[in-house]
Amino acid sequence: MSESQSTDFNSYLRRCLYVFIAAVCMITLMIVVSFLPNVGWSVKVPVILAIAGVNAFVVAGFLMHLLSEKKMVYTVLGLTVVLVIALAALTVYAMHDFPAGTTMH
Amino acid sequence: MEIPYTVHARPDTGLYNAKIGIWLFLASEVMLFGGLFSAYILLRVGADPGTWPHGWQDVTLGTINTLVLALSAVTTLMAWVACKVRQFGKFRFFHGCTLLLAAAFVVIHLTEYNDDLTHYEIHLTNGLIADGHMLENNPKENHVMIDGRYVKSESDLIDLRGQKIHDTEIKIPRSEIKDMQSYGPWHNDYMALDFTMTGLHLLHVLAGSIVIGFLWLTGPKMWGKDPERFTNRVEVSGLFWHFVDLVWIFLFPVLYLT
Amino acid sequence: MEPIIHQFPPYRKDAAPSAHDDHGHEHHEPNFIQKYIFSTDHKIIGIQYGLTALCFLLFGFFLMMMMRWQIAHPGNPVPVIGPLLEKVLGHPAANGVISPDLYNSLGAMHGTIMVFLGIVPLAFAAFGNYVVPLMIGAVDMAFPRVNMASYQAYFLGGLVMFVSFFIPGGAAQAGWTSYSPLATTIPTHGQLFWIIGMVLLITSSLMGAINFIATIIQLRAPGMTWMRLPWFVWTQFVTAFLLLLAFPPLEAACIMQFMDNVAHTSFFLPTGLAVSGTLAHISGGGSPLLWQHLFWFLGHPEVYVLILPAMGIVCEILANNTRKPIWGYKSLVYSVLAIGFLSFIVWAHHMYLTGMGTKISTFFQATTMIISIPSVIILTCLFISLWGGSIRFNTPMLFVLAFLPMFGIGGLTGLPLGFNVSDVHLHDTYYIIAHFHYIVAPGTIFALFAGIYYWFPKMTGRMMNEFWGRAHFWGSFIFMNMVFQPMFAQGMAGMLRRMSNGGANYSAAVNARNGAEVIGGLSPFIMSLNTWILWGAICLGIVQIPFIINLFWSIKHGEKIKNDNPWDSTTLEWQTPTPPPHGNFLHPLRVYRGPYEYSVPGHATDFTPQNEPPENVPAPTLSPAR
């Protein structure tokens, strides 16, 4: 095993630990936010989900190497994300748009 | 003639076959869990006000599970790095850690399920509700014993955030019981979604563990013949494991914290 | 140079004379099981898919015939096979009569089997597996063992669906759409089998989709750029994406419906649900519409899965038999990509009558109208491609020529369904049945027949009999129209779907006999069309018999082809020996030109294969008359 390989390994290990520490911080932050008194759910939920999103970005970007991935992978994933959002958004909207005087379940 | 680009990347796409394969599979998994999350959003947003539970899960156990998975994601990546620098011993160490962490996750989660399935909501004939964990439910006996409390109505049980609950042993004669139901998936839509989403996630954890376990056990054989191909296999299975972690990163806040 | 043979795990050392036999390796001949049942070769898997799918298509056809009998002669025992039905199915077929429950089973399983076990495996998996690697110049699919697993999952799923007929209570009864709460409140296990079968089929499709996309991206031969791909490969590529991304939400929904059925959850069961007059003991709070949204999120891309491979086959055969390039190749490519993307955001046009508000209906109506544009562009390009062609009217071409107007009818009749205003009148009527059957039956299935006649010589080295091919074509064409054309009239008159007594409840004549009047009831003429349709279906079935015989007889006795490229085609699948060996091509390939170089001026032959080196091809010349 060469010198450069061992330094590569150790630098990778260090980077991984930074990612882990970042993840732990974000998890702690989410928990703290969720327990804040006197703050309504309509504020807490988007904030918590945003922190989760950042956490996901860090895991995907660094641990899954998505930040250094190829265009083909980006295209597939981009399309997927658009479609998931379309599915959720259109379904929820469809269930909340109904003619006056009627209800929807 | 052999199939090209199984180990080395195709120049114009920069990918080897299994890499594009696993990302395509992960895209379909995003749609699968996306469908479940859509169902969650719809059912929660559409629920009558004051009927959606809060604080029903143990945040401590959930946090431990989250940290366990986050750490396992790191050990998975390090296992791949070890393969990249051709240090097979380190690969075995790191993936051994991954498997242990996965086992911890599964055990903790199963205790959570057991906790839910032994937690009962008992409607009494006098209009009160007894809510707590079942201590004694012997069919021969004329009573049940729970470790819980009395509440006046179901709305007292909905939002448990910030409540200090004092459980005592309560003995209830069977004649006073109108209806009894455990906190399983049948209890309400929140529990249904919780069991289904975490259950599907757990299946993915098990599947990932089996694949990583297989590589861990049979690794030496392929490592000797074709280390580059083995490294790719470790990378591809690692990507799946990271995805499993990603799903939990969203499941935890959605089910435990909000 | 010695090729590297992968030995981890022991790769296939099997199949027909291998392309690299001359290197002196000891290949032991694989036995029948290894070669045909557990093969990882894409060609064998393609044929496995094809034969299994054809069997299911035939079975689905029989289910339909029994339904049509019951519709035309409600309450009468089925002739000939009535006693057999009673023996096999028991009470639901008492006295050989198809009971309403059995009718519902037949209807649900006819749809499920035709779509998921028949057309998709045949159009996408069978033709795709066999032809796509050959067309792109690849050795095999990217993941051969995943390929084998996908067929096995399909087979298991089909088995589960088939077996469900014989369990107590019979097969699923809630339609191929399995709407909740009906699908959960039916007290038999047929729905469970349906869900399990669907999960297996979805798994099979996902594995296949991943394989196709990876293969097309990674394994194109040198020189085979994206814009030199035969359009069939493009349609398979987009179809694979549709399957990959649209199926999983249905899988999620199936899991939730399974939980509803087995674990008594209420994902799709609303509060206050009453079954047979009593309040159901469920937690409630669920949403039946949620199932519909998740189902149709797949359901709509699914119909494009049914049509796109067929259009691809039509394009290949059309170019070949007009001896000229396809008009508008770029338009075809961009149109199919547009259809692929748009198909994900039109799904709620299947749900106009669920009480949706105007804003969301308008959104889906708009996207539905927009998606008709690329479809029309594709059909137009194919039509224009005929202009000035030197058309050969062989059997495949006859089916292809019929596809064009038949798909046109099917597509155009979809327009009043896309508008929510007119759909209010037509939803859930026979008009819908006519619309989608025109697209799939004289549409997709004709293209698939064409593909079978066209690629048969490559698979077997023999041609199918031309006379019986034409007989099959004319019979199918006439009787398909006889079956489905009247349904437009029935639908517009208001005849609803899924009525086990053929609409007798709404028939003006029947109600007059009973002393009641139904305003706008179904006239005797409309009711008489049921008999007409029954005869059409019977004749349609009879006319498939020469096809089945032709298919199997020609394997051993068909006219032998004189060279490896009997149709004088430009695409790469014809540049292999017949049938293609393991590894497909004898020498490494390089591609120099597009897929439809027919009748290039100045060249000795009227076709130039994609891999013909440029030195052998003279430069195109200007035609003398300017």
Can you put this structure into words, describing what you see?
The complex is a heterotrimer of chains A (105), B (258) and C (626). With 105 residues, chain A is mainly alpha-helical. Chain A has helices at residues 3-34, 41-63, 71-96. By secondary structure, chain B is of the alpha+beta class. Chain B folds into two domains: 18-113 and 195-257, Four Helix Bundle (Hemerythrin (Met), subunit A) (Up-down Bundle), CATH 1.20.120.80; 117-182, SH3 type barrels (Roll). Chain B is built from six helices and five strands; from the N terminus they run αααβββαββαα. A five-stranded antiparallel beta sheet of chain B has the order 4-3-2-1-5. In chain B, a hairpin with a 4-residue loop joins β1 and β2 (129-136). Chain B is elongated and about 80 Å long. Chain C is an all-alpha fold and 626 residues long. Chain C is built from 18 helices and four strands. In chain C, a hairpin with a 2-residue loop joins β1 and β2. Residues 1-26 of chain C have low confidence and may be disordered. The interface between B and C is large, with 48 and 55 residues.
- The helix content of chain A, as a percent range, equals over 70%
Q: For the CA atoms, what is the radius of gyration of chain A?
A: 21 Å
- Report the radius of gyration of chain B as a whole number of Å: 24 Å
Query: Given the C-alpha coordinates, what overall shape of chain B results?
Result: elongated
CATH domain topology of the largest domain in chain B? Four Helix Bundle (Hemerythrin (Met), subunit A)
